[in-house]
Amino acid sequence: MERKIMDIKIKHLKLSLIALTASALLFGCSDGDDGVDGKDGVVGVNIDSTSSVQALFTEASVTDGTVTVNFNLENANGVAVLGLDKDDDLRFGIAQLAKVSETIDEVEYNRGYQWQAYINVLKEPGPLPDDTSDLNPSPQFQANVEAASNCDDCLVDNSDGSYSYTFQQNIANVTEPLTIVYGEDNTHRATLELKLPQVTANAHYDWQPSTGATTDIQTRNVVTIETCYTCHQPESLELHGGRRIALANCASCHTSTSGDPESGNSVDFTYMIHAIHKGQDRETSTAEGMVPAPYKIVGYGGSVHDYGKVMFPQKPAANCASCHVEGEGAPANADLFEADLSNTACVSCHTEKPSQTHSSTNCVSCHNSTDTYPGTGSAEKRHGDVLKAFVDAEAMGVAFSNIGLDASGKLKFDVQIQDSSGAAVASEFIETGTRVVVAWDTNKDFPAYSDASYSQRRFKLSDGTYDAATKTFTIIGTTFDMPTDADGKTFELWSAVEVCFNNGGYLVAEINMTECSDKTRSIAVKQPPYQFVWSGTGVDDTMQAAMRRSIIDAAKCQSCHNQENYHYNNGYNCQTCHTSDKPTKESVRGSGDYDKATSYAFKAHEADGHYLKYAGVQSGTVLKTDCLTCHSLQGSDVIGIQLGRAPDRVWNYPNLETKEQAGIWVSSDAGACLSCHQKYLSDSGANHIAANGGILDGMSADDVKTRAAEACATCHNPTQLMEIHGN
What we know:
Keywords: Heme, Iron, Metal-binding, Signal. By secondary structure, the protein is an alpha+beta fold. The protein folds into three domains: 46-382, no CATH class; 396-576; 585-725, no CATH class. The protein contains 13 helices and 30 strands. Helix 8 (600-606) runs parallel beside helix 9. The chain is globular.
């Protein structure tokens, strides 16, 4: 009983103490208004635990040369990111956009606006690689950024996700290592780069210090990163160790005074980007002729980035508008490439001496729109001249008619090339050595190679007869037999016909369709295949053609490849010839080693340039595992990689052990996988395929069709395939 009373007293005492403490706390926290809530705490996420971060500058100012910027950090949901510290990998840059002129032979030329960084270093050449070809080591200035960790009190944390930073570099009177004259009326750009272990953020802020204006000022923004992503994958443009991901930051750091000390090459942004994309076609003129002039940069530890290996797909010439996209949503200075102000872009592609007939590199003194030298024209026109023939040919058409059988039961049809108005084009303007390709079973990946090889299904116009009065060619398919079950099948006629144009160049005023000769060039007339259902004697107009399943998005291919691809440059109907069962071939002609598949899927997946993450310059420009680079979508579903849709298809792959011409025969879904994975396929992977009904050791097409019972699509749906490939 005594123990129980003692417990009650203790409990009462505790409650009294709690009440007194609470009362004291209320008085201690009082703001003078009893009952009013205190200030809310900050809602935010700690910088060490956030999976996303975005930086946004809010203000910048210059006082006596001291630059101060304010910025916020948020995650992807707009929640404040707290706890940024000076010792995080946080760096800042500062540059101005100044008007530049150049004096040549006592004549001053306007070179427009160019970025100039205030923070620069003079760098001596470091270790050189073993192969020093095309390298000219020399000391070079390089634009730089400053690390927040080098200053104890420059970064201020306001504890609410907002921060301020005062630059260590005073910009009022910069004399070392370069003299930079501060102009308060010039646009200035502050840049931020934050590299965390889990995420990276870049930001920039453009303003005019004299007024504080952020709009209606010069920016020299000419391209967007989204345009780059047309061909590049985002991770391939995460540079300098993944720290730099924004074009605005790149442009204000890769300035005209910046160079690579180990190679001696300029790293000015305009020069560098054009030189990289000129790639393996970059040449310079010597007395002995044109010689390769690869653009090389030597990186950390003497590693060489040889951009002479780059195969830029913009053929036959770079279309400026593929990167310099104008129109709605375009950056402010998207049309700057038309201004004829700078020689930098010219010599970056054509090198400092484009031909022996040029005495200087003041290219725009002749190549301009306002005071052009006779017979030259501006850069826009000269590049446009190369492409104008393609534009004109694309507006033309191919018409097929009178489709039927001749007396011997062979397919017979008429073909007419038409100009943009629909008028027939005469044969003298047509390269009659170009062809029309015939195919059937369009919905089943085209004829089996054993039924009719592609060489049996293609016909030169010159193989037919020509009616000059109607300007029509008549072609008879003498080299193949119509399939016995042709009735009701979908056929197609695909044109690889080309028309002739004059070449552009010196003293050529206009590009026009021209009578074919050894001095003209021939351009494909781009026209989708003409598809129809066979009635038994001709076209069955009552039935709709059965379309092939959607696999690739040709518009995605075209966005990178421009006008020329490999051969037969009428779109991307490559599958009509490169069927999955087309025989293997020798990788080196005459070697006797039949170790290359020839199907379109294999060629596309293994193509030089589609595989740069692991070969070539190892840039990852187009990542093989990014299915969306090429494959088609239906809504959000990547239908272009759906399995189980063509069980009748078989593939012919090389036998990597024997390398005999017969190769091996592979079932439908397994063959799709092998187009990438054959040389990397492990025993366990092969066993997994076989256990799920796939055939990897077929002796013939019929052998595969008899035994195959693939169940791949049960587990491997498009979403799962995207995930397993890292998308």
